[in-house]
Each structure stands twice: as C-alpha cells, then as structure tokens.
Structure prediction request, 332 residues.
Amino acid sequence: MTSTKPNDAAPSSAGSGAMSPAAIHLSIVIVTWNNARIIHECLNSLASVDNTSGLEIIIVDNDSSDGTPELIQNTFPHVTLVRSPANVGFAAGNNAGIRVARGDYLCLINSDVVVPQGCVEKLLQYIDEHHDIGVLGPKMILPDGSIGRSCLRFPTVANWIWRALALDSIFKRSHRFGAYLMTYFKYDRITDVDVLTGWFWVVRRQAISQVGLLDERFFMYGEDMDWCKRFKKAGWRVVFYPEAAAIHHCGASSSKAPSRFYVERTRAGLEYCKRHHNPVAFAGFRLAVCLHEAIRLLGYGLRWLLEPRRADAAFKVRRSWACLCWLLGLVQ
Prediction:
C-alpha cells in the first residue's frame, strides 16, 4: 500500500490534512475499484459534510486501471489517497483505510453512495449520544426512490431453507419465513438488528479496538455479517437509524461481472456459516444453498421458455448455473 497525503495548504470543503490527530472526530473511508465516475459523484456529495469538529476523507484504491486514482489526486486534493498494488478486496481495502484513519468514529461508505446534506451529522449525533452502539447504519434509498434492504438476521439453517423455497417471497409479512432478509421490516423505526449490510457504516473506534478489523479472508461479501456478529458478541449494539438516509446505486463493481460476484456472494455466505456454526449445521447450510439454486434454475428456465422477454430470465439461469457448478466442484 502507498499513501498520498493531502497538501496541507490545499483548499478543502470536506477536511484538511493540516489537522492534528487529536482534532479529527470522523474519518470517512471509501474503497474503490474502477469507479471513476461514481466516486466523483460520491466525493462531491460529501463536500457538504460539516467539518467544524474535524473530518478526514480516505480513499483506498484497489489498483484501478480507469484513471480513478488520478481523478482523485487532481480533483480532490484534500483527500488522502491510499493506493493498493492489487485488488485486495473490500475487507482488506477498508482495513487499509482504517489503519491510517485518525477519527474517533469511522464512516465506511461504498463508492456508489451519494450522501445527502445532513446525513452524516445525524448519524454522528445519534451514535455520540448512545455510548453502547458499536455500529450504526442509515436508511438506504435506491435510485428509483424505493427503500433498499440494509438489515439482515443472522443465518440459520431454517431461515436459509425458507429462503430457498421462496417462502419469504410468498409470506413477506411473516417473521418466521421472512426472517433472514427481514422482508417484514418496513425500515421506519430505530431498531437493534443482527446485521447492517456493509454499504454504509458508522463505527465507534473504541469498539473496533476491542473487536478488531474486518476479516480479510472475506474478499467481498460476508465480512458484514462476520463483523456485526463479533460486535454483538463483544456486547456492542448494532443499530439501524432511519432518521438519516443516503442513496445507494448498488453493485457498481459487481455489475462488471455479475455471475462471478453472485458466486462470490454465495461463497462468502457459506464461509461465514463455516466459521460460526458446527459441521452438521454447515452441511445444512450447503444443502439449503443447493436447493435454492436448483429451484431458481428450474423456475427461471421455465420463464425463459414461456415468456417473450427472455433476457432477465436467461441472465438468472446463467447465474444459478454458475453457482451450482461451483457448489458441485465442477469449477473453482
């Protein structure tokens, strides 16, 4: 990793490298990979964040080849740029940013997020007032204005089987069948949750000091469940806070290779289950995933045969087939 520090004399609307470590209240860490246009929009949105109490922005670039690091250096000189010699993944990238961060709080934001004015300030005020919160997350707003899913329950064999059988789609209001994805949750109230997905976190440094960094054995996906599990085991609250909201474009990196990242998501989920459950339960999780993909392969295959608009069904057939091939050991 190489780090490019901001020029102390450079003008800044979002933070300054001249601040002493003691003056930094919040460190915003963003990991990017070949997302020049999107990271530009994200950083522009952060220009309105109040920096009177001390703010720094750290970008960790995972060896982009599209001019992302050059864009950051030329357009946002106040930002600290950490350049990785390779694409080390989401967890390792965030850890690289956390290691150089100086804030009392760490705000980890995906590069495809646009942060409205006042969002960060509301989150900071709430976590500052509640000393038992380790991780706080805002409401996710999708580009079409709908509410995105940003909370999960911890995986169990049962809730993965309900998901595989699509019972969570049939009985969306059921707390039993919709448990894993929390399909019943309206995202309209402050509540303690098992998992806040890793698109936007505010994390207390004191909690990180106790729990440790993200597990770098997760390349992408799964690290959010693992980290939240460790925070909760250590006694820290994980809280969803809908009074603050941000826009998430979703999948800026994964859209470049959707089937590959779909398999990676499955791999990461099973890796989490392997680490936090016994071998018998892990076998149940693996069976649930196989059932999930087999049912989707059949369902989307029938849709592809019967419906005139086939592109979406064909894509999902390829995606489930790739995942089944990996599960059965036919591909690495």
The two ends are 28 Å apart (CA to CA).
